Every structure is written in structure tokens, then in C-alpha cells.
Hints:
This protein is mainly β. It contains 3 helices and 13 strands. A hairpin with a 2-residue loop joins strand 3 and strand 4. InterPro entries: Cupin_DUF985, RmlC-like_jellyroll, RmlC_Cupin_sf, YML079W-like. It holds the Pfam family Cupin_5.
Amino acid sequence: MPTAHDWIDALGLEPHVEGGYFRRTFQADHRPPVRTPDGDRYTMTSIHYLLTHWSPIGHWHLNRSDILHFHHHGDPVTYHLLHPDGRHSTAVLGQDPGRGQVLTLAVPGGVWKASHLTAGDHGLISEAVAPGFDFADMTLGRVDDLLRRFPQHPEPVRRYCRPDGPDGPAGTTA
């Protein structure tokens, strides 16, 4: 069975600013771009995304685009979602429907999202993003900002916000 290191090597994955590893696998450059208020975007992009036992968290972030997540290999990945109406919901992306796991998860643009490897060595997923992903359309969560927006959910906000690091404080827009 392939390990996290095997997938990183085989897929050419690189560290992602939100945590884990990724590689873009598709961009619809054969189609006319989609006009958005922030500029033209591909109609769709996709990536492989990997959480590992040494990088198990995809920290809170907000995307403007809709994203479909697909579980491919390894251990389950738990998603935490903070909705614009203040709700917190979870879903587990994985291969065992008997345990309530789903193969596909849709996250609309405008919903805050964090994820973590539920257990084990790694969880490999892919994401399809429409309109296509652009780092200008992603905001990393800051504890103070998210606690102001979602004061009823302090535990998941604090647990899954990106800690300050050598690249500066958490929450800078990529």
C-alpha cells in the first residue's frame, strides 16, 4: 500500500500554504475564461491534495469558488465548515459508508473550511474548483477574525487556525 511519501513522490506534490501537499492537475485553458469581479478565471481547475501524519491539518480558509472534494486513497479526512449563517457542520471524506463517510463533498464558495486527517498515515483527495482556483480568491483564517464572526464555535476556530510562522501571521491572503 502506498505511503504518504510514495504519493508525494509519484504525484510531484508540494507543500500548500493551508497545510498538507498539493499539485494542480488540470486547468481549463482550452475554454474562454469566466469573468469575475476580481478578474478572469479558468472555468475549472483541479488538484490532488494530501494530508499526512506530519502535516495533518488543512487550516481554516475561505474560497470564493465552489469546490468538489473526492476521496481517493488512504485514511478518512474530516472537514469542518463554518457557514455564513453561523452554523458549524462536519463531514468525513473516506471509503467506508457504513461509518457515515462520503466519497464526495461539495463546499460552496463563501463557506469557511478546515480539514484534518482523522487517523493514520495519509488521506489523498482531489478537488475540482469552479470558477477555477486563484490564490487571490482564498483567505486564510485568523483566530481573532473568525472568533468575531463565529463566537459560538471557539474550539474548532482555535484548533484549526494556522499558527503564526516564519512566513508571517496566519490569515494573510495568499
